[in-house]
């Protein structure tokens, strides 16, 4: 469907006796219907006060050639914006795009206009390319940025890039081509669906226009770049899974990072690397976008002719000026906040991974300790087996088995003594042992405070006594008489059993006294 006149958003009240004039209708802003709109032409005056839409085209390629031919002439002092939303049949290069390209060649001969209906996905906001937009731009160098959402073949929500290019034509004409990716319409999406919707509000940046073509171009570029910031407001990112939507949207990691969501699940090194790489990419995109916006804003503030500033002050009322200045301030602060959100996310990811790495090191230290204990046990066993040079079957060992265990205990005792000496030398070197010796009661004082302390002391005495009985038994059995060693071992274990019973009685008595208090 082709509409050759703009539609007025505010209908006249019943008290009005006369309908608005055609000129009033021509300058009234148009609210587009993004559900079916694929193209509209917007004429904006260089002072930013008058904007009209002489053409709106819905998803139908029939009649597009005639509609473009019937467009009013592009007058001097007017910026003509072609706001394109290729989708459906209008993605046909041999139909819709060919007609638009033909119109550009006939209407603007000499310009090298090659509109791309399929913009590249990566951001292209190089400062040189941006400055080319208000420097004549004879080569047609454009810029692109992420301005919309789309669902890819895997049903995941991703960003899509839009494309903008500005041409100076003739003495005082400006041609702007904006090629947008299709927006994903959900109940929580921002209201500014089309480029014209973003430049139509009262606080639009083009309200700062002052009749200069260069200044209006900068303002149009700034609105285009700001659409990437307003793409997914941080306050709405958690609402993408709105139950009222026509389908349940999948999680969009890019939005979660920008919003500063702190859900980090770097359970493995691979997941950590992927998460960090994603955040680094998003940070680079936001930094480039923020630098581009700051570049255009500073260009508007610093490099304006004093006469142009005075003219702008006269043409703009204070309320409109304050609204635009506030919007520009909010825009810069939004860029700053989202960039800080990503930086904080990267820092949090690094801290989380560092904490998990420390926990992993502690677990590895515990594993090494267990392996050391096992080595302490099996090394004496290996040495004792080597010393005895066992060449007999197990059932034929008899007294050799006794000797084997005895050698194991003796060599193990020597290893423990060496270990204790090494630890003692280390403690002396670090002066830690002197702190304990400075207070003789310190070692025993911490065990007298509780039942568990007493049990710890008695338990250590029991283990030391057991080891002493084993050592004495094997020494007498291996060096003098086997039977004597066996008797020492038997009587020793009986004594140790009695000691264990005595310890239990003491502990129970201590518990009884504690309960009595």
TrEMBL record:
InterPro entries: MgTranspt_CorA/ZnTranspt_ZntB. It holds the Pfam family CorA. GO terms for cellular component: membrane. The chain crosses the membrane at residues 371-389, 401-425, 451-476, 488-512. Keywords: Membrane, Transmembrane, Transmembrane helix. One of its GO terms (molecular function) is metal ion transmembrane transporter activity. Residues 1-19 have a biased composition (Polar residues). Residues 1-29 are annotated as: Disordered. The keyword 4Fe-4S does not apply. This is Uncharacterized protein. It comes from Cladophialophora immunda.
